[in-house]
């Protein structure tokens, strides 16, 4: 991959002329800038559980400046809300090595309430981390007959995005809308006239020659970040990864909104964990069963609450590591599967 380029004020103008000249012509006034935002370009990746366990020390050494980290997703057919099992670890480790972080959520919301629920779910996790870059709404595959969003029209989908992104903004994060160039062009699948006037836009378009050989995205609408390949090779990540150029950066790193801090998550708590999605009501078979923020017993600070036989919770996944993924009051938590029994 390309070596890291640190832009000084003297080099910024040259870089923009040669590489991102079209971006300077885009109207920016509709989008409220985050604190310490500066008009210079930055290179970053976006990651999820599909990248597996990442060596963030190597990623930082490679010159990556920011990372957009998937926080969760709603399943396409059943609509079950899930946390990405690598989200907190990726946030923790990227933060540790000094990489600026943003986030995204993969939505299949079909109602305003679901969109708000997704945004609240996302913000609740992010509050304990230093989130400098935007928080994006990602909605795809809605034209597939197997998607629960199949049949929703453009206006409805666009309004759902607004509900998500306005909730994110109300929580103090910079909202961003993500979609492909083709889906956004001429408002084909989204009301980009409305969305681009309210939020930052993250465009996905894979050119034959990646950036900087192709200096800019050819999407002619307003956009602030370009995902230019899904096959970038970055030290510390197995296989290809999405690479992005942001047409903005930040002079510093934001503080966490919740200064109590996030529990430390060991790599052993996330590596190679796979959950089978289920929809079950369960109750514990033992008294004072711990519900934790991570599927690990190494840190007592990860315990959120204790539950007892007769207390009903919703189980959304059964892991291959002996843990179950459950939801309590909208928060995703984990408990030993062997101490849970199915009620419904």
Task: Write up what this structure looks like.
The protein has 344 residues and is α/β, with parallel strands linked by helices. It folds into two domains: 9-250, TIM Barrel; 267-342, SH3 type barrels (Roll). The chain is built from eight helices and 18 strands. It has helices spanning 9-18, 21-24, 56-61, 87-96, 112-126, 154-170, 181-184, 192-198; strands at residues 37-38, 42-47, 66-74, 81-83, 100-106, 131-138, 175-180, 200-204, 225-232, 241-246, 249-250, 275-284, 289-292, 303-307, 313-319, 323-328, 331-336, 340-342. The strands form four sheets. An eight-stranded mixed beta barrel has the order 2-3-5-6-7-8-9-10, surrounded by four helices. A five-stranded antiparallel β-sheet has the order 17-16-15-12-18, with no helix packed on it. Strand 2 (42-47), helix 3 (56-61) and strand 3 form a beta-alpha-beta unit. Helix 5 (112-126) packs parallel to helix 6. The longest helix has 17 residues, at 154-170. It is globular and about 60 Å long. Residues 1-33 have low confidence and may be disordered.
Pick out the low-confidence regions. 1-33
**Order of strands across the widest beta sheet?**
2-3-5-6-7-8-9-10
Please state the structural category: alpha/beta
Number of strands: 18
Average predicted local confidence, pLDDT: 88
State the distance separating the first and last CA atoms. Answer: 51 Å
- Determine the CATH topology of the largest domain: TIM Barrel
Radius of gyration: 20 Å
The number of distinct structural domains comes to 2
Helix content: 10-25%
Give the strand content. 25-35%
What is the top-level CATH class of the largest domain?
A: Alpha Beta
Counting DSSP H or I runs of 4 or more residues, the number of helices is 8
What's the overall geometry? Answer: globular
Order of helices and strands, N to C?
Answer: HHEEHEEHEHEHEHHEEEEEEEEEEE
CATH architecture of the largest domain: Alpha-Beta Barrel
CATH homologous superfamily designation of the largest domain = Glycosidases
Tell me the major beta sheet.
8 strands, mixed, barrel
